[in-house]
Each structure stands twice: as structure tokens, then as C-alpha cells.
Specification:
Layout lengths: L8 E2 L5 E3 L4 E6 L4 E6 L6 E6 L3 E4 L5 E9 L8 E5 L4 H28 L1
Parallel strand pairs: 2-8
Antiparallel strand pairs: 1-3, 3-6, 4-5, 4-7, 7-8
Length: 117
Amino acid sequence: MLYAASPPTFRSDGAIDSDTGYSLIEWDASGPATLAIAPPGAPSRELYSGSNEAFFISGLADGTYRLTLRDASGQEAPPLELRVAHQSVTQALWLVALGAIVFLATVAAILRGARDD
């Protein structure tokens, strides 16, 4: 009696959300697998093919990406959605300004304390 290998499966239970533009994609497969990505409004392209069970994706722009996983026999996992929404530039600039204020206040306190000695 022959048993068919089970299809590959993504380890994530649902969609993956990223606010940084990168993510680690992990899966389970009984042999080599091929990971492909379909950017918004573009055709699918292969990212990885081999026996590893994880792939680090980086440098993604905002948008919703569709990831597909296929094993050597052609069995496919249900597609996985990767949603990328980078953090606000305004928020980042406010945090930089706050950091600069704290830094300057620390330098001023050190210099003032050094003069008192």
C-alpha cells in the first residue's frame, strides 16, 4: 500500500502582519518545497526552492502579498497573506526629536555637574 505525502503547510495560523517590511516565513514539508510571492498587482515569482523550512523576507513595500508553497509533487498549501504597513514617518520623526531632547538634557546636566566640582 502506497501512502501519499501530506501537502506542505505554513506554520502561521492566519495572515501575517508586518510594520517593518520584513518577516520570517516558516512551514512544514516532507521534502523540498518552493515558496513564491505575488506582490500587489504583479505576477507571482519564486523566492526559494529547497529543503529548508523557513525563509526570511525583507525589503517589502506597503501592500498585501500572497505567499504560496508547493512541494515537489505539486501539492500546494493554502495561500498565506502577508500584510505590510510601515510605521508612520511622522511618528518616527517625533521619536527622534524626543531622543534628541533627552540627549541634550543629559549632556547639559553632565556639563553643569562638572562645573560645580
